[in-house]
Each structure stands twice: as structure tokens, then as C-alpha cells.
């Protein structure tokens, strides 16, 4: 297993990622061991999008001010909801739109002239990948990515099994990053950007990118009652978290609008092939957020978890911390007996009854 003593960077990041970063370039088999042989760890690691984002945030924090990451800054890092894959894939879409007017393909020119496509590109062009509940760009991007996967990955594979969510996004990036070197087709020889009637490979790629955007906008219009006003496409109407009780039904908390998305640092992943509002509801997220600071004189800790301390919907502790959890706020943790006393907490002691 990989080992590291006193990391040169001064910190360690763990977000279910490949600890050596051999998959960070989206190719898990292009590195060798110092003594020869393939350097391969496992296939099960996350793609590293969350770890990359955490590393980027830490570098920013340590490059400014006192060159330290404060307690509050680490809490903000935990609550980061920037889409790393959007920062990688979005530029390909914008570039396709910018190239379209000079294309020889009439279909591509028509797509770029579509006012709905043009309006969506204008929004995405300046978007930084953030996903607050009021974001329109997050909704547009999510449906574009969904339709692009359907067109570029799923359709060419036909009846073959489809790759999982992470692998699908990784495949999109691989195809786009290596498009020119591969001559416009995948390593298998399959033309994943097939577009009958369009001769140039680059135009077929750009057509797939822009046609997927138009398909995504059509789906959004259907989801929002037929509205073509993009101002209506608020992310919180789609992206919601479900807090499901083990007994289900009336014990559960109905889906709540939230920020975040696929592989954000604050986990909020849903089905990247989503085509309906219910597909965006997720039940896997940060069940527990904690930050700890160890000091020479005193220690500090704060934590928050979804819901509350009771599984009884009639208990005041059922939703006790839900608002704080949604807002990435926390509650201080009392670390010792003296802190508990000073905090005015009540201690209850339970003794077994004698037989």
C-alpha cells in the first residue's frame, strides 16, 4: 500500500480518491513503478474530483494572509459545492458554440443560431461551476451532461452494458481531451460523435455538444411546466436531499432543496443520466461534518449532522440540526468534563435495576 512520511505539501487529503494521484490525469494505466512494471492500485477509487478541489482550496488559503487555514476556513472547504467536472467539460461546449458560425455544416450553424442555445451559452460562459439553489447554470449544465452521456456514451454502445456514473463522466473527458490525437474516434475505433450528413470530425463533435445542450433545454422546459424562460430553471427545484427514515413513509423527511451536485466536496451526487425531477433527489451525502483543531493550550471542535438526535418524528430532536446542516453551520463539541460543566449540559446516568 502507498505510504508517505512528512508529506512535502504539509497536508493530507482523503476524499475516497486514489491516494497517489495516478488516476488524476484520467488515465489509470500510464504510469510505471520505479523498478519497472505498471503502477496500478485499484479500480474502485473515485475519480479524484473532490480531492482536487480540496487541494486547490488549501493552496489558495495557504498562499494568502498568514499562510494558514483557519478553523472557519476548513469548515468552508467542507461545504464547498463547486462542480469540478463542469470546470473541465464546460469549456468544450463554449468553444463548440464559438466555432459553429464558421462551420461548413448547416446543422451546426442552425444550432448555434437557436436563441435558447445562445442564451444558455451566455449564462454558462461566465459560470464558475457553483451550485447554489438559485443557480440556473447548474440546472442547464446538469441536463446538458445528461444528454451528452446519452448521445456520446450510451447510444454508440447500443445493447452493451453502460458504464457507471463516474466512468461515464471520465469517458466524456477522455474522448474530448484526446479527440484530435485519436482522429475523432475512440481507441476502440468507434465514432462516439457520429452525426450523419456532417463530414468533418470536428464538426460532428461540436454538433454532439450543442445538440445535447438543446436536448437538455427541451427537457428542462418539460420539467418546468413548458416554460422556455431560463430564469425559471432554479437548481433547488431539481437538486434535493431526501432524509429517509428506516421505517419509511411518514417517518421520513420530504425532499428539501439543497446546493451541491456530482462529486462536489460536500457530497450531493445524483443520477448523472437524470431526465426527470425525481432523478435529482439524492439520499447519499455528508451525514456528519466535523472540524477539529489541536492546540498547545486547548483543543476546539465543532460538528453537525443531518436531522437530529431522535428517530421519532414527534420528538423535538427529530429535525433539531437540519437547518444548520443545510447551511453548513455547526455546533461546538464539548471535549471534556470541565467543558461539559461550563456549558451547562445535563448529564443523565442510567444504572441497571437489581435482579
What does this structure look like?
The protein is mainly alpha-helical. The chain has three domains: 1-70, no CATH class; 84-236, Orthogonal Bundle (Penicillin amidase (Acylase) alpha subunit, N-terminal domain); 287-345, no CATH class. The chain has helices spanning 49-62, 71-78, 84-99, 106-113, 115-125, 137-157, 165-177, 201-223, 322-326, 337-342; strands spanning 240-243, 253-257, 281-282, 288-293, 300-305, 331-332. The strands form two sheets. It has a three-stranded mixed β-sheet, with no helix packed on it. The protein has a three-stranded antiparallel β-sheet with strand order 4-5-6. Strand 4 (288-293) and strand 5 form a beta hairpin. The N and C termini lie far apart (52 Å). The relative contact order is 0.11.
